[in-house]
């Protein structure tokens, strides 16, 4: 982060970033998790501070807290929801880089599940987690999140027989009701029959910015540029 050459274009803004995966408890020693490292969200938080923002980072990631960032620790999707909605009440922008578990175990065992006598452990039944981004959109509609608050989602998509990465991204943007959606292409896009590793920043206004494959710091810069542009 070369402070000298960065624009000071987020001064006076409170930006909430969510980062990393959630952990959904099975028993006191086990959880369901995912591979999200939190690097993209942490890069966004660090860069937003360097461009003048006040930043709240809601995260479970095992990464150092970037300087001058207020970190709020969470584990489960429900904790992430509560802390994100709390922070969003005073936010100008919420950027949802966290990989939220879609499901959690319906029942959390109070004691450790043990091997041994008799039957194998029962199946782990799952239930749906709340959709935090959809809840933010709804909270904004009710005025619990400022009407002017910009909501930014992320989506990792693969192309398939029914739609390309871009088409899946457009559909998700419409479904989620957020203002910007950062679409990352993962794997091969079978619809166009070619690899292209970049992604798009989709704007609910209809704008679509192609982003070439780049480091998480560079992508963070592009995302914040889109936030500044959209906030004008
Ligand atoms: N998200 C969320 N709450 C959830 C799931 C996802 O807030 N329970 C957010 C993510 O943080 C991300 C965006 O929604 O910013 C898109 O996540 P994604 O998993 O791609 O969307 P889903 O609606 O869960 O769709 P899919 O069925 O493709 O997983
Ligand atoms: Ca999901």
Automatic annotation (TrEMBL):
Full-protein residues shown: 173 to 404 of 404
UniProt pathway annotation: Cofactor biosynthesis; coenzyme A biosynthesis; CoA from (R)-pantothenate: step 3/5; Cofactor biosynthesis; coenzyme A biosynthesis; CoA from (R)-pantothenate: step 2/5
Keywords, alphabetical: Decarboxylase, Flavoprotein, FMN, Ligase, Lyase, Magnesium, Metal-binding, Multifunctional enzyme
Keyword Cell division: no
Lineage: Bacteria, Bacillati, Actinomycetota, Actinomycetes, Mycobacteriales
Domain DNA/pantothenate metabolism flavoprotein C-terminal stretches: 10-228
Domain of life: Bacteria
Keyword Lyase: yes
Protein's name according to its UniProt entry: Coenzyme A biosynthesis bifunctional protein CoaBC
GO terms for MF: phosphopantothenate--cysteine ligase activity; phosphopantothenoylcysteine decarboxylase activity
């Amino acid at each position: 982060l070369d402070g000298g050459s960065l624009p000071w274009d987020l001064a006076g803004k409170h930006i909430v970033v969510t980062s990393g995966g959630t952990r959904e408890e099975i028993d006191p020693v086990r959880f369901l998790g995912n591979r999200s490292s939190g690097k993209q969200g942490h890069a966004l938080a660090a860069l937003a501070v360097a461009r003048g923002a006040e930043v709240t980072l809601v995260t479970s990631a095992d990464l150092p807290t970037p300087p001058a960032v207020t970190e709020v620790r969470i584990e489960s999707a429900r904790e992430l929801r509560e802390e994100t909605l709390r922070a969003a009440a005073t936010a100008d922008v919420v950027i949802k880089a966290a990989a939220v578990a879609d499901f959690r175990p319906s029942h959390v065992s109070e004691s450790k599940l043990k091997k041994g006598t008799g039957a194998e452990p029962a199946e782990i039944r799952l239930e749906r987690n709340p959709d935090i981004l959809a809840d933010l959109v709804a909270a904004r509609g009710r005025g619990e999140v400022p009407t002017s608050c910009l909501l930014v989602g992320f989506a990792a998509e693969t192309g398939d027989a029914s739609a390309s990465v871009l088409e899946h991204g457009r559909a998700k943007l419409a479904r989620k009701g957020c203002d910007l959606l950062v679409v990352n292409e993962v794997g091969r896009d079978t619809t166009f029959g070619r690899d292209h590793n970049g992604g798009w920043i989709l704007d609910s206004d209809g704008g679509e910015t192609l982003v070439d494959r780049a480091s998480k710091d560079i992508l963070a810069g592009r995302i914040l540029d889109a936030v500044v542009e959209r906030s004008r």
